[in-house]
Amino acid sequence: MQITGIYKGKAIIIKDSYTVISTKLKKFPEMFHLQTGPKDSSCLLANDNRTGVISEACKFVQDVETFMKNIDLIENCRIDENHFNLEKYSSFYCKQDVRILREGFVKFRNDILKEFDLNVYDYVSICSIANKLFENRVYFPNGNLYDLSNKPREFISRCIQGGRCMLSDNKKQKSEKKLIADFDAVSLYPSAIARLYTLEGIPKVLKPEMLNSEYLLKHLFEDDQGESECDKFISGFFVLIKITDIKIKRHFPLITVDPELNPELKAKSTKDKAKDKATVPRSSNTCCLMYVDHIALQDLIKYQGISCEVLQGYYYDEKRDFRIRDEVKKLFELRLKYKKEENPLQENIKLILNSIYGKTILSPIESKIQIIDDKDAVRYAIRNYNHIIKFEGLDGSDKTIFKLTKSICRHFNFCPLGVNILSMSKRIMNEVFCTIEDLGLQAFYQDTDSMHIYNEYIPKLAAEFKKRYGRELIGKNLGQFHSDFAEITKGKQSLAYKSIFCGKKTYIDLLTNDLNEVAFHCRMKGVKQDVIALTANEMFPEAVKCVYDEDKGLMIPQGKYDKDSEFSVMKLYEALHSSQEIAFDLCKSSAPCFEEKFNFSITTKNTFIRKLKF
């Protein structure tokens, strides 16, 4: 995001640095090797005169010694023995934050400019930077790759399917006293690109005689085929299919049910159709209409034995360009080299690697914002009334803010590549999941690039995977997997001793290691970690309390305990697992809860209740 304007005849551009470097500011010094002084992490109290009370503040700061030194180091900050000027104290650290942000961003810009000859100031987001890099190295040198707009873009974009996130059989799961690993894919999207290609030419509408899966797959290129041959002349396709039969039922189905495309699968219990809910889960063994590309269709037939009718679609019949594979591998190897050297540039390359596909599936921007002087607002409204969605006076100014519709007929993107990347990433996961199921093993949960599986299953899984696909499953290279729970103590692998899975993105793992330490890895979509801990401690005061450690990304128990003790956060998830409704006040977080309004005014919310039930 960026805002442009004119001030005293000078062009001003205000950029959102977070869209370029999506990392917390506290990590900048380590990420970019910046010099910064010690800083206490505090939650400070003040009276109406903006005077801080030292004795009260010391109850909240994590490093009291550093806090006391800073009060004396900051000019005119200390008032007396027990009071300090909170405004001067806060102002000093605001300036420190701005300095660190600037130095980090400039370092990032200089590194990218030196390594890739791209000026970060010219781009809005990291996705734009990654896209430009691949335009220079892959797309433009080919000369026969095309962005799409209008109907072809709209149709092919319907084939976009995000990563699968589900519980086994879409049912709540629980495991106790048997170690579980968080088995993660290494750089899933770069791994997918490393097995891919770009489709040359422009898409063509499928002819009537081509509307069946047998014909399309018979004439589809082989995986590593680059040019058309007499019988293999289709380089790729994107189609709408109707699944009529499913021979293999999976615990983690490949089929994605879109309720908008399959209205008969929607509940009809409400008068408001927008509130109607799907009667079947999004990932399920259900016959339905589905948009797919050639990669997804191959997997549906191979792993679920589907039969289908092809209703309509587009196909490509020119070359496949494989140079994108080489470029992503070069970037990955370059990152490994810099990581080994402890060069902060490795973090920049990591950001680019994970952002390559984002711009290719960019959705149309359907609205825009204009800020007009109040004196010109009526005239502007009269001239643009057909496009105005809403307008409002800009808070505390003589301006009016207008939200207008924006034409999407000129929106272009490279969605064929984006769709193929997402489908290939799912193939990488399907190869592992279907091997697990075919061996009769159990996986509990998947969230895009990771799975929860019993640790003792991994050697057997790796052996069968090598037998089937001729590749090593475990490792740290593209296309491989590794166990990835956060470590309680550095160098000591964590595994889950107990786990509770309530729903999508709502689960908890009781982690332990060789030192018999205990911590909790928990997720709850829409609820912050410290709110989870606070709510659990309030609901179950008799259990062992837990606090969130932001640096480790884990919940840490307090007091005396062992791994079989009763912990407040585990009891909270047990209550959710047993279908109890629990209310969370999101404003209890240590971070303030703001509400941003259309007119750019910002208010602090005092309470924001979110109720969850599974």
Word description of this protein:
There is one protein chain. The strands form nine sheets. Strands 6, 7, 17, 18, 19, 20, 21 and 22 form an eight-stranded antiparallel sheet that branches. A four-stranded antiparallel sheet has the order 9-12-10-11. A three-stranded antiparallel sheet has the order 3-5-4. Helix 10 runs antiparallel to helix 11 and helix 15 packs across helix 16 (568-577). Mean pLDDT is 90; it is low at 41-47. Helices cover 31% and strands 24% of the residues. Among the domains are: 14-124, no CATH class; 154-167 and 188-321, no CATH class; 367-405, no CATH class; 485-614, no CATH class. The protein is built from 16 helices and 28 strands. It is of the alpha+beta class and 614 residues long. Strand 4 (78-80) and strand 5 form a beta hairpin.
Q: Whole-number average pLDDT?
A: 90
Number of strands: 28
Largest sheet: 8 strands, antiparallel
Number of helices: 16
What structural class do helix, strand and pairing data support?
Answer: alpha+beta
Cα separation of the termini: 36 Å
Question: What is the helical fraction, as a range of percent?
Answer: 25-40%
Rounded to an integer in angstroms, the radius of gyration calculated over CA atoms is 27 Å
